[in-house]
Structures are given as structure tokens and as C-alpha cells.
Design a protein that fits this description.
InterPro entries: Glyco_trans_2-like, Glycosyltransferase_2, Nucleotide-diphossugar_trans. This protein has 10 helices and 8 strands. The chain has helices at 17-28, 49-59, 74-84, 104-112, 130-146, 164-171, 180-186, 210-223, 227-257, 264-297; strands at 2-10, 34-42, 63-68, 89-92, 117-123, 160-163, 191-197, 304-307.
């Protein structure tokens, strides 16, 4: 029997871990030739998530858990689960049931057809705001343009299946800022996608606020491309040319019309504008320097406080 490892990061998900375990168990009750394990990764939860996981592990042998010493983030949590998974294939999914476990048999079917990575292409239900849908699609379009990865619209979900050979490659990657969605695309292998409609959160509230979304967006963009640095250089050159041409035209106009070169307000606006451009460029450079700073220290992506295997 082939073994499927299911990695589920959990941050304040005390109301969901039992539900998703039950639904996954029901799914595998219809899959005769497969056994499974669920690796929950408690990412520094402040509620009773860890207690619920310990209780589940005592009742069901297929339930494993990893408890972090603090909150390290969603991507390190998924990476930790992959590091300890030993199945023939590994499926990563969220604990809030927005990733439907009922899609697992179709993912396994595609894997058995010879695909090494089976990713999912998400469509949002009507309850999700238009702003959320549009900004998500716009982000992945932008990421495809200015980086070396090409994530399809809705293809940025962490709900995917990876063959054990792919997971072995992933384990050897020790990046300070992990962006697994991009890495799985960058690695290649044989890949295919499956469409699904995201479900509603079963209980609790999402901790993924706007600040975390922006940080995650910058991580994805800077993890796979130096094009923003080239963009900064191009902008600097372009605005310098505009400044020289504009000032030259202004001087010629002053000589022809015999007027003084004046304009305190326009001067201040120009200084502020170009100052802003310089700060943007310095910010882009600073992000890359910060990533180098974090990488060279070689700190671990996560610290484990406890585990049951």
C-alpha cells in the first residue's frame, strides 16, 4: 500500500483540527490501496490547538504533530511538515477547510498518471469580496511578469501534491525567506493543475491580515527575480533624462520670452518627487540586502518545541 503524507500548518485552529481529520479519514476510507498520515504543524498557536492535537494523536495513530517554539509563519510550517514526511507523496493543505479534502482522490489519480506535482487552481466563492479576488489575481499576474516563475491565476494556493522525489529536492533547500508556491513552479518536473472552489472557513478567524499579505507579496517577488533592481535603474535613468530635457526646454523658453527662471513651488515639488523615487529605489535595494543578511546568518527556518514522532 502506498502512503500519503498530509501536511497541515495550524495557527489558532482549535476548532478545525478535529473536523479536517475526520473529513480526511472519510476520504481515505474510500481509497483501498492507500494509507495515510496527517502531520499537523502547530505554528505557535495561542489557543488550545496543541491540546487538541495531543488528544487526537492519542486516539488515532495516523495523527502526528510538530509544535513550534513560537510563530514562524505559514511557509516554514509547511516546510517543516515536508521535512518529516515519509510518504510516497506529500499533500499540503490548510487547516481551515477552505481546501476541500474531497479533492484528494483526484490529486492522487493525477499523480498515478505520472505527474510529479499536482497543484490546484483556486476560484473564490461569491462570499469573498471582489477586492480580494482582484488583488489576488493582479498579484500573480505581476509576479509572473517581474519574476522567473509563472503562476497561473488562482494557482498560488499551497494546496498541492508532490511526489517524494520532489519533496527530497525541497528538503535540501535552505532559503531564509521560503516561498514554496514559487519553488514548486521553479523546480520543474511534470506538473498539472486541478480547479477547485475554495470553501468557507469552518471556525475561527483568519490571522492573515493585510500586513502579512504585503510581506508575503514582497517575499514572492524578491525570492525569484532581480528585475525590480533593473526597474529601479531604468527609472533612475528615465527620470534623469526627463529632468535634463525639461530643464533645457524651460531655459530656452525663458530666453525666447525674456522672462526670469522662477517657481519656488515647482522646484519643491520636483525635489520631493525625485526624493520619493530615490527612497523607492533605496527601499528595493534594502529588501535584497535584508534577504542577504538573513541568509548569511544561516539561522533555522523553524525551531521545534515538541513532536510525537
Amino acid at each position: 500500500m502506498k502512503k500519503i503524507s498530509i501536511v497541515i500548518p495550524a495557527h489558532n485552529e482549535e476548532g478545525n483540527v478535529s473536523l479536517i481529520h475526520q473529513r480526511i479519514k472519510e476520504v481515505f476510507s474510500g481509497l483501498e490501496n492507500y494509507r495515510f498520515e496527517i502531520i499537523f504543524v502547530n505554528d505557535g498557536s495561542r489557543d488550545n490547538t496543541q491540546q487538541k492535537l495531543v488528544e487526537l494523536a492519542e486516539k488515532f495513530e495516523e495523527v502526528k504533530y510538530i509544535e513550534f517554539s513560537r510563530n514562524f509563519g505559514h511557509q516554514p510550517a509547511v516546510k517543516a511538515g515536508m521535512d518529516f514526511a515519509n510518504g510516497n507523496a506529500v499533500i499540503s493543505m490548510d487547516a481551515d477547510l477552505q481546501h476541500p479534502p474531497e479533492l484528494i482522490p483526484e490529486m492522487i489519480k493525477k499523480w498515478e498518471e505520472g505527474f510529479d506535482i499536482v497543484y490546484t487552481i483556486r476560484t473564490y466563492p461569491k462570499q469573498i469580496s471582489a477586492f480580494k479576488r482582484k488583488t489576488s489575481d493582479l498579484y500573480y499576474k505581476l509576479l509572473s511578469v517581474i519574476s522567473d516563475v509563472n503562476l497561473k491565476e488562482g494557482g498560488g494556493s499551497d494546496f498541492r501534491l508532490m511526489d517524494s522525489s520532489v519533496v527530497d529536492v525541497m528538503r535540501n533547500m535552505n532559503e531564509a525567506d521560503i516561498f514554496l508556491r514559487g519553488l514548486s513552479n521553479w523546480m520543474g518536473f511534470r506538473q498539472t493543475g486541478i480547479h477547485f472552489t475554495a470553501g468557507e472557513r469552518a471556525s475561527g478567524e483568519s490571522s492573515y491580515n493585510l500586513k502579512k499579505m504585503m510581506k508575503f507579496a514582497f517575499t514572492g517577488i524578491t525570492a525569484f527575480s532581480v528585475k525590480p533592481l533593473y526597474l529601479a535603474a531604468y527609472l533612475g535613468f528615465l527620470f534623469s533624462v526627463f529632468a535634463v530635457l525639461g530643464y533645457g526646454i524651460y531655459v530656452i523658453h525663458s530666453f525666447v520670452s525674456k522672462t526670469e527662471i522662477s517657481g519656488w513651488a515647482s522646484l519643491i515639488i520636483t525635489v520631493v518627487f525625485f526624493g520619493g523615487i530615490q527612497l523607492i529605489i533605496l527601499g528595493i535595494i534594502g529588501i535584497y540586502l535584508g534577504k542577504i543578511f538573513k541568509q548569511v546568518k544561516e539561522r533555522p527556518n523553524y525551531i521545534i518545541r515538541s513532536k510525537n514522532f
